[in-house]
Each structure stands twice: as C-alpha cells, then as structure tokens.
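hey can u check if this looks right to u? its 351 residues, i copy pasted from the old doc so theres a chance i mangled smth
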Amino acid sequence: MIIDKRDICALLDAIGRDEQVYVPGSVAGVTQFVEHEPGVEPLLDVRTTKVPPKELLFPKAERLYRWKTHEGHLSIEQADVASRPFTVFGMRPCDVASVERLDQVFLTKGYVDEFYQARRQAATLVALACERTDPTCFCDSMGGSPTRAPGADVVLRDRGDSYRAQAQTERGQRALDAWRAAAPDAVRDDEPGEAPDAGDDARVTCSLTVDMDGVAQAMPGLYESPMWDDIADTCVTCGTCTFVCPTCYCFDISQDTRAAEGSRYRCWDSCMFVTYTQMAGGHNPRADKAPRVRQRFMHKLSYFFDRYGENLCVGCGRCIADCPAGVDITRVIDRVGAEAAAMRGEVAVDG
C-alpha cells in the first residue's frame, strides 16, 4: 500500500474516527507521542522522540483498585482493565524493540500483568523505518536495526513523497484493509510487479557502535570493580536516564487514603533514587550511589540477558542525549569489555 505524504493527515483523521491514534508530536517543546487531532501535522521526521511511547502501554501512574470500609466490612473494587483499541503511528524500530522487551517482563515467565496485557492487546503498532540515524543511536549494536521492526504490525518506509506500508501481522493486515476502506483517497495499491521492500540494513547504519560480545557474561565478574565508583562520581542520580528509557519498568505502589476509603496505584520509580530500596525498618542496601549505578547497568546489560536472552538496552540513545552529567552507556560497555579483557590478561585497561 502506498500513502502519499500529503494525505497522511487525512488518513490519520479517518483512523481516528474509530479509535485513538497516537503520533510523534510536541508538548511545550518536548517531543513525545500525543493523541492525533484533525488537521495537526504529526512530526514524522523526528527520529527519536525525547519521551518514548512506553507510557501508552505502561502509564506513569494507574489505579489498581479502590477500597472502602463500612460498619466494619471491607470491600475492594479492582480498576477496570479494559482498553479501547488504539494505534501508535510512526514508532521507530528501537521503540518497537522496546515493546518486545516489555512484553517479556509483563506477559511471560508465568506471570501476566492484566493492565499491561489489556493495552497491549488493544494496540496496533505502526513502525516507521529510519532513513538516517542520530549521532547517539546504536540500535544495530544491540541486535536491532534502523530499518527493520519485526515486532510491528505495520512498517512504513519512506519513498520520498510517499510511504510504503507493509503488514507484518494479521492485525496489521486488518489495519491496512481498514485504512483502505476508511480513506480510499489517501491510499493506493502498490505498483504492479513491485517486489515487497524488506528493508536495506546495509544502506542505513548507526555511526555509533559498541561490541557487545561477551559483555553480559563478563559483568558479574566486575561486580566489585572500582569502575562503578568512577561512574558514580559523575552520575547525579537524577533518574533522567530511567524516565527517558523506553524499557525501564521500575514502579512503586502507593496508597491514597481519604477517611474510610482509598485507592492503591502504581507509578513509575527509578533505581537511581536512594529511596527506591529503602526498607520499612530503615535498612537500605543501595544507600550509596555506586551500588545504584551498578544495578542499572547490571540490569540493562547482564541480569535481563540472563533471564530473557537479550539485552534490555535497545540502543535508542535517549539516555546519552539527555544525561545532564554526560554518563554514556556505550562508554560503560566499552569499559566493561576492556576490564574483562584485562582480567583475562589480554590488554591493559586505559584509565
């Protein structure tokens, strides 16, 4: 299916008549996914929004249940987990890969999060392959690709004055059929005889690269390395890296009590905050910065790999671009590789 760029808004308006549509946009100068409004041009040229689309599946705050007491009796009402169908239009491949990571956390290993599952089943993911990359992108070093998004329902590829849309799932094919019916003037069929475009990884690559070979296996041996103190000296533990990360999923459970009733909800938290591991009795196993910094990188690059067989980092580069202290995960990866090699007696660590 071919979509002329001048008809994108007409298509989004048509989709929006039946379901919510989220597109890259800007709020107070911050690029993020916003609900599409008729006539508003989406920012599809933005390669990586400052805020990832994670919130659409895993909200910053959501109520889990309400409770109340009356004459000594307690009643509990779980929050409604139902979710209306919605489309996320214009996700970059790294963000699609991040959803696959969240799926592992919330839907596998014998535990299903009903709240996440409801949104995930309601979502149609429309990816937009990258025609170029930002200086902080390194997705192809983390097993991804700027041009391929196998976890998306539909993939869009830029053809200059148009996009070519290809379905990758049954949900994606249903979406294309619905688009054709809802906006016949905005879409047209492929040219006869034109072969499907599977993407060209050789044509679009990231200039920033890291070598992940053996990193996950080497990190446990560096648990007591002084490198974590060095990194912690720079880190200000502001939590920016975790909040702009599309795969961080730490949360806290809080309670709002009003007289004889209240509610419990969960909200995003960060392993960078000193109170994250604060226990009821006052003990805190990560009261100092270095253990918290170490935990973040261990989880991203080793613990998650051990559990799910892939890295939690998808190489989007947001944490590099937005860290106020200049902490760079690719430099940490390089240092892990150098430290591990030094432990094996292969090379000397520089600094």
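The chain has two domains: 2-63+77-188, 215-343.
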